[in-house]
Amino acid sequence: MVNNVLKVGIVAAEKSGDSLAANLIESFHHDENVKFFGVVGPKMREVGCFPVGNIENLSVMGFKDVVLQLPRLIRLKNSVCDALIKHEIDVFIGVDAPSFNLPIAAKLKSLNSAMKVIQYVAPQLWAWRPGRIEKIKKIIDHLYVLFPFEKKYFSEMGLNTDFVGHPVANAIATKQKPQIFTDFSNMQAINLAVLPGSRWEEIRNHTGIFLESVKIFESLINKKINLKVGASSKEVAEYLKKRVEKYQQNATFYIDDSIGCLNQSDLAVVSSGTASLEAFLSSKPMIVGYKTGKLNYFLYKNLINLDSISLPNILTESKIVPELIQDNLTAQSVAKQLMLWTIDNRRLSSYRQVGSNFLTTLNTQGNQTMPSRFREFINKLKGADEK
């Protein structure tokens, strides 16, 4: 720490990481003695993080894409390392993206053993390559996790771990109004959310199937469907508007507001990922669909040690939501699963109760959230250096 200024390197690799990192940085906006340098997205930049790289350069999807982009990613990793070394950081924070962040942390720590490393969002060792734990323990000083089972898993492995709740749960609990649920049979019209994903490959693979399923579902249920479409950016919204027009549908669009989109919906079709968790914690019945390239899918099937891909099913260790993957994802199969949600009130009631219970479990608002835990960690470091 130079001149009582603590320098923090922070790297986020995706849009969701940009939001998580920005919340941490924002918690220090009144403290001139803590400076942040990192790979940034728009939200991190907005709250004052000095950029040494851009999140957009890290946006790759699937095993195949990673292999094809590997030389460029290695150059970017080396560039980020060089920049953070130049800025003489005292702490490194990897936000998610362990495959990118942990090698950076290892290199930085090899040059400065006193540097502290924080990983925010756990590497999914419980899903694949659990043997990485011994190497990870040598790199990470503290791990902050989003789910209670992860704290138990990593603590038993000997890693300093804290559960800090999930920011999605905190956001939903803050925005959610008291809901009066009704059976679909009593609805004059159904508000249906469509969230095809945040990455371009997901969006292109899913949008046509999802929109076609809406037309089939509407003909089956014989009710008006009010379409709500979630778009991760303005550019994505423009693309989706053209696709919606092609299918001669009317829709309300929600830009960078998937929770708002779900709040205004009764039922949802979503891509696997954060959107499935958002729908679950909002107690919205859903279909999870996912389609990728054949090589990506082959590698996924052979490397990932999970029976389910969606967070609701992983968290509940059940098939609480239907998953339609790869060749099983068709407009007809989605429409059929949507219909099944509308005719089984016992299943619907049970699902909503489980979703509500998990919202309570994952919501740490009013307790110690990650920004407050992070402030504690940093303030302890500053106090130790000042002695």
Question: What characteristics describe this protein?
Answer:
single chain, 387 residues, alpha/beta, Rossmann fold, seven-stranded parallel sheet, six-stranded parallel sheet, 13 strands, elongated
Q: What fold name stands as the CATH topology of the largest domain? A: Rossmann fold
Measured between the Cα atoms of the first and last residue, the distance is: 12 Å
Q: Given the C-alpha coordinates, what overall shape results?
A: elongated
Q: Main beta sheet, described?
A: 7 strands, parallel
Description of the structure:
This protein is of the alpha/beta class and 387 residues long. The chain folds into 2 domains: 6-165 and 364-386, Rossmann fold, CATH 3.40.50; 174-362, Glycogen Phosphorylase B (Rossmann fold). The chain is 50% helix and 18% strand. The chain has 17 helices and 13 strands. α5 (98-111) links the parallel β4 (91-95) and β5 (116-120). The protein is elongated and about 70 Å long. The model has no long low-confidence stretch (mean pLDDT 88).
Q: Could you give a quick summary of the protein structure above?
A:
The protein is an alpha/beta fold and about 375 residues long. About 50% of the residues lie in helices and about 20% in strands. It starts with 5 loop residues before the first strand and ends with a helix.
